[in-house]
Specification:
31% of the residues lie in helices and 41% in strands. Strand 2 and strand 3 form a beta hairpin. The model has no long low-confidence stretch (mean pLDDT 87). The longest helix has 18 residues. The radius of gyration is 20 Å and the shape is flat. The strands form two sheets. Strands 2-3-1-4 form a four-stranded antiparallel β-sheet, with helices on one face. Strands 6-7-5-8 form a four-stranded antiparallel β-sheet, with helices on one face. Helix 1 packs antiparallel against helix 2. With 176 residues, it is an alpha+beta fold.
Length: 176
């Protein structure tokens, strides 16, 4: 059985240092873990695995950690039937850079979802460009492109889409 966990807390709270020993004490295994700073907050994402009573014990312990540290914790038991999703897809890296506009990420994700392309991961940030003194937004996506989608026409269509929105982009396969 698996459990997906998201945790959000203030920068000064070392909640990851509190959660990891609990995973071990409950005899669960970490399958994935990510953490990042978001302004003055820290977000962590974990996927753990264990049998049903180990997961239940872990969930009960999380409740007390959440109250004690004043953090936000959300859990979800992923659907096991979706675990083969993406098996017949090709992983691609997609990187963009453009002037910081409100709808850049929304436009790109809409383009991908309209073509049944799954997004595995999105990373993005805004920063001040040193020479043009304008805010720039850069993104990096990991996407899963269905094998039946013609890659050459998709690439051409995506680059035309980016040209229209004045976005510089790179779309390339991830080496396995």
């Amino acid at each position: 059985m698996q459990l997906a966990i998201t945790v959000l807390g203030n920068n000064h709270i070392n909640f990851i240092g509190e959660i990891l020993p609990v995973v071990r004490d409950c005899n669960c295994n970490i399958l994935e873990i990510r953490s990042s700073h978001l302004g003055q907050s820290v977000a962590a994402y974990l996927l753990i695995q264990g049998n049903w009573n180990q997961i239940a014990k872990f969930e009960n312990t999380l409740d007390s950690i959440q109250k004690r540290l004043e953090i936000k914790v959300h859990t979800l038991r992923p659907d096991q039937k979706d675990k083969d999703k993406g098996k017949d897809c090709i992983p691609y890296s997609l990187e963009t850079i453009s002037l910081d506009k409100d709808s850049v990420v929304e436009s790109i994700t809409s383009f991908l979802f309209d073509r049944d392309i799954s997004i595995e991961e999105i990373t993005g940030s805004s920063y001040q460009a040193p020479y043009i003194q304008s805010a720039v937004f850069s993104t990096k996506f990991i996407v899963l492109i269905p094998q039946q989608l013609p890659l050459l026409s998709l690439r051409e269509e995506f680059l035309d889409f980016c040209d229209h929105l004045n976005i510089d982009a790179i779309l390339e396969p991830i080496k396995r």
